[in-house]
Design the sequence.
């Protein structure tokens, strides 16, 4: 039996925000493998050189050193092998979402980084129910 | 020659103002990340310590989170202040009295009554209608917060004595403002009482004042302790 797993790549430079996602995964019993890149450039290299299993989902921070989220998205959408990946953007404010919409970079959704951890857990739970819809059928 | 110099300084002033607002925006945006981290870490410390946390430690963790929340509110207020000149800039003909009615209808607090008087029924004014709503809402909020009576009474009078300037009088039966505090109420983060006692960071009046200055109106107040407060606004609005 081959079980297809939905891999998730988190692109985020802030250590506490990474812990935030890991904690929220745990609280929601999300067991999908979570890979981590610390900025857009690192993520792009990992994806293009096959250093990580191909993720179906990317959770993307916007403010990052070296290559920020918007620059990364542009590169991703220009790469024939990577452009299909669903991207969820984590933003600090609603205004960031306006910025990304302006570039028209085809986003699956936004997660607002709220002050409270409880609220973040809820939004990750919503994300998870969305992923389960996209989960590829289990092949036997 | 003279007008050239003036144009030059006008241009420079505009540039410096924009730079300042960009700076405020970026700084307060970036400062939110560490505040969020402190808040999250305090939740995780509490979770990881489990069930046997002494009450005083719990209280301190609660205070820590309460202060991060206050700081976030203050950041948001600075952001809002820095955006006055570039958001809600739409102008269209609106019925100001109707906006007042909407604010009254949105008030769900049973101990608060809002009374509206106006002599400009069904008249349309060209104005920054979103900014108008923000200012009146802030004044109403302010009147509710700084009120020690069981029944809060707020009266809003809309008067249109001449072209291009509407007068709005907002008065309340609240605790009033002492003479020493009168010139401080429009300062950002000024609160008459400790921020612990009221759930406010003291930004509403500063934001209102900045909006009114931006659109070229005026706001003045009359108050003394225990006699309520009256705000008089002159709001640019034209009927054509
Ligand atoms: Mg970041």
Sequence:
């Amino acid at each position: 039996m081959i079980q297809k797993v939905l891999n998730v790549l988190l692109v985020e430079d802030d250590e506490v925000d990474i812990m935030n996602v890991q904690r929220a995964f745990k609280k929601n019993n999300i067991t999908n493998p979570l890979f981590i890149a610390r900025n857009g450039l690192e993520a792009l290299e990992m994806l293009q050189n096959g250093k990580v299993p191909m993720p179906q989902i990317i959770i993307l921070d916007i403010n990052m050193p070296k290559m920020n989220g918007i620059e990364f998205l542009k590169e991703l959408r220009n790469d024939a092998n990577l452009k299909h990946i669903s991207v969820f953007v984590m933003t600090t404010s609603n205004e960031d979402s306006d910025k990304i919409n302006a570039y028209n970079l085809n986003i699956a959704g936004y997660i607002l980084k709220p002050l409270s951890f409880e609220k973040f857990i809820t939004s990750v739970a919503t994300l998870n129910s969305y992923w389960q819809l996209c989960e590829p059928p289990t092949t036997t | 020659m003279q007008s050239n110099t003036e144009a030059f300084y006008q241009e420079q002033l505009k540039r410096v103002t924009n730079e300042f607002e960009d700076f405020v925006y970026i700084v307060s945006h970036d400062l939110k990340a560490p505040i969020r981290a402190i808040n999250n870490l305090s939740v995780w410390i509490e979770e990881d310590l489990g069930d046997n946390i002494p009450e005083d430690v719990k209280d301190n963790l609660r205070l820590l989170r309460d202060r991060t929340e206050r700081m976030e509110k203050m950041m948001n207020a600075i952001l809002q202040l820095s955006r006055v000149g570039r958001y809600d800039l739409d102008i269209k003909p609106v019925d100001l009295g109707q906006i007042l009615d909407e604010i009254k209808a949105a008030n769900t607090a049973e101990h608060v009554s809002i009374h509206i008087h106006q002599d400009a029924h069904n008249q349309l004014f060209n104005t920054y209608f979103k900014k108008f709503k923000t200012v009146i809402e802030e004044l109403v909020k302010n009147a509710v917060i700084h009120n020690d009576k069981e029944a809060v009474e707020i009266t809003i009078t809309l008067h249109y004595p001449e072209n291009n300037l509407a007068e709005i009088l907002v008065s309340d039966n609240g605790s009033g403002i002492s003479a020493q505090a009168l010139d401080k109420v429009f300062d950002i983060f000024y609160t008459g009482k400790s921020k612990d006692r009221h759930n406010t960071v003291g930004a509403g009046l500063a934001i209102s004042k900045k909006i009114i200055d931006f659109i070229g109106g005026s706001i003045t107040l009359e108050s003394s302790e225990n006699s309520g407060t009256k705000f008089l606004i002159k709001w640019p609005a034209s009927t054509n």
Remarks:
- Chain A has five helices and five strands.
- Chain A has a mean pLDDT of 83.
